[in-house]
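Please fill in the sequence for the structure shown.

STRUCTURE ENCODING:
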């Protein structure tokens, strides 16, 4: 048996998988986010341990015999969080999370230093780890002076599980300290933030052995000795391992609260000016590119609240047959936008409204706005050298066939819908645990799920969609000027 632990923002998921990659069961522990000031977002690392204990305890209650047979554990987690430890591994302050924007000034200052984009291949976003440490240095100097180790959230869990300070490439690529092409820490970038390599964890690949489970925990959970802990992955890379998105040309589109267009690459292809994330993948000698939009299903849920109907009711009113875009254009920038604009201040807009603009027309515009934002991501990835021939759809929004038809038509590629199953980050983490424990070939293990249905582009509407996308592209510069 193999255990995947996924440390998310709202909870920890523990998934148990057998050697044939059949999911045996899962457990969950909940988490809350503390927001003591505007723009702040924090969690206490002790709560991650408590939630993990709860998730594993649930599995022990329902599947004690299978849990006892665990040979490998894989870790996945929310990226970018700054967990600060002193020389005795005591936590110095609450972890500053990925969606905390307090360090926007520090991020801009680091991004103005050309070395950061040149070495990391990415813009220094406020959510990344390095600017948070500069903020602590500027605002909490006593705490900064005590920092002996900086760990990402899942790697703090590893410290508790194994006693080791270890991270891996995919998660570390989101710190703004990694030389992403060379897959190693950059002493130069660390020095620019007042740190050095001694304060960083050891780096391994996601498929490598990265510690063994402490005897105390193995005994508590009923496991044997020598349970291997894999390097693991950041959440999106772990999801890609679960989806089999690990080879050149493999891609998925995620329609969750936010939207992601993720493509695996056999080589490092940075283009930070496009706000595309170029990170190391969890597998050796593999990278990935990722475009991120901040409001995907979030945009539909926002409109649902105004329209007074559920998202499912709104999309069902559209019917199954894809329609040509109307005169109404919607920009889904309800909380700013990441790719391709890197604009935290921009906000959403409807344009082209008329007396004839019904609820159904506005629903259609909202779905198309998200579709075109994902198309922006595709164009950004293309400009960075990535070619995508088809995508797999995941996330809650993928339940809408209309939406997927819209995406297939705008992107000009088939959209595959996987068979029912949980192919997310916890499953990907369990796969990494299997690889680390057995030495199995990652490519043979990280295979795509069976496809339930493929949605082809509606060729009759290609030109109409292209015209609407051109109109959409013209709207951002017009409203940003306001």
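FILLED IN BY: designer on duty
SEQUENCE:
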């Amino acid at each position: 048996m193999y255990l995947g632990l996924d440390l998310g923002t709202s909870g920890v998921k523990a998934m148990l998988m057998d050697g044939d990659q059949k999911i045996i069961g899962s457990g969950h522990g909940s988490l809350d986010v503390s927001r003591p000031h505007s723009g702040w977002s924090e969690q206490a690392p002790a709560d991650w341990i408590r939630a993990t204990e709860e998730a594993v305890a649930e599995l022990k209650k329902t599947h004690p015999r299978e849990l006892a047979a665990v040979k490998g554990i894989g870790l996945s987690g929310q990226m970018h969080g700054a967990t600060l430890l002193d020389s005795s591994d005591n936590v110095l302050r609450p972890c500053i999370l990925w969606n905390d924007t307090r360090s926007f000034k520090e991020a801009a200052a680091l991004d103005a230093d050309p070395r950061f984009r040149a070495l990391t291949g990415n813009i220094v976003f406020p959510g990344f780890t390095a600017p948070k440490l500069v903020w602590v240095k500027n605002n909490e100097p006593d705490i900064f002076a005590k920092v002996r180790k900086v760990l990402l959230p899942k790697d703090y869990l590893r410290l508790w599980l194994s006693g080791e300070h270890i991270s891996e490439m995919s998660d570390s690529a989101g710190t703004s300290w990694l030389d992403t092409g060379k897959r190693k820490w950059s002493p130069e970038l660390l020095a620019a933030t007042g740190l050095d390599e001694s304060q960083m964890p050891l780096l391994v690949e996601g498929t490598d052995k990265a510690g063994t489970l402490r005897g105390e925990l193995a005994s508590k959970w009923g496991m044997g000795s020598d349970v291997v802990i894999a390097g693991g992955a950041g959440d999106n890379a772990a999801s890609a391992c679960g989806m089999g998105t690990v080879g050149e040309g493999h891609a998925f589109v995620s329609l969750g609260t936010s939207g992601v267009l993720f493509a695996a690459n056999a080589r490092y292809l940075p283009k930070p000016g496009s706000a595309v994330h170029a990170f190391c993948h969890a597998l050796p000698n593999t990278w990935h590119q990722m475009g991120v939009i901040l409001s995907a299903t979030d945009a539909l849920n926002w409109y649902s609240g105004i329209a007074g109907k559920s998202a499912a009711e709104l999309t069902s009113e559209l019917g199954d047959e894809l329609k040509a875009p109307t005169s109404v254009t919607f920009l889904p920038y309800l909380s700013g936008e990441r790719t391709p604009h890197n604009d935290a201040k921009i906000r959403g807009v409807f344009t082209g409204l008329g007396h004839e603009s019904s609820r159904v027309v506005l629903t259609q515009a909202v779905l198309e706005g998200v579709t075109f934002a994902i198309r922006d991501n595709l164009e950004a990835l293309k400009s960075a050298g990535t070619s995508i021939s088809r995508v797999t759809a995941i996330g809650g929004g993928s339940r809408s066939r209309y939406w997927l038809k819209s995406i297939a038509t705008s992107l000009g590629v088939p959209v595959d819908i996987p068979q029912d199953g949980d192919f997310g980050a916890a499953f990907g983490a369990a796969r990494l645990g299997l690889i680390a424990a057995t030495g199995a070939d990652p490519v043979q293990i990280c295979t795509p799920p069976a496809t339930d249905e493929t949605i082809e582009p509606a060729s009759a509407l290609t030109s109409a969609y292209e015209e609407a996308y051109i109109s959409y592209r013209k709207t951002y510069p017009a409203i940003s000027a306001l």
